[in-house]
Fold this protein.
Amino acid sequence: MKLNNIINTIKFFPFYLLFAPFWFSNGVVDKFYGVFFGTYAGDSWAGWKEYIAGNWAKKPVTDFLLVPFFDYLFPVLMLLQILPFILLAVSFLKMEFMPGKSKLWLKAGILASLFVTSAMCFSQTLAGTSDVQYLFQFWGVSLLGFWYVENQEKALLNK
């Protein structure tokens, strides 16, 4: 019984270990910190604009639909990429990894990851970039993660 309690306590930790560092690095550090505190040239506003809008400009549809709106879309992307980390941090601080606790914030964090990855996949697929390959993989991991947490929570709460 003791081992079962340990397993039920730690079985959600892999999601914190996967999603929180990923979005901390890609959202908080690369986007927010890089843009607002100018860590290095590639992570500045101009660096991201050159990279993202440069990829969009390679295809006529994204050049027409997305490039002119980069200055409006990029702040939204920054917020979307920070949101999963914030939600996961709240989940961890609320100790949602404990057995019998609702996983509301954890599911919200993984769902935010799924949503932002979907938005990024949308633009990168239209643009035909190589980034879409890892984004589709992360989308799949996010989808499976959400499904797993949802089913495990139901199983734990229905005991």
Observations:
- The chain is about 80% helix and 0% strand.
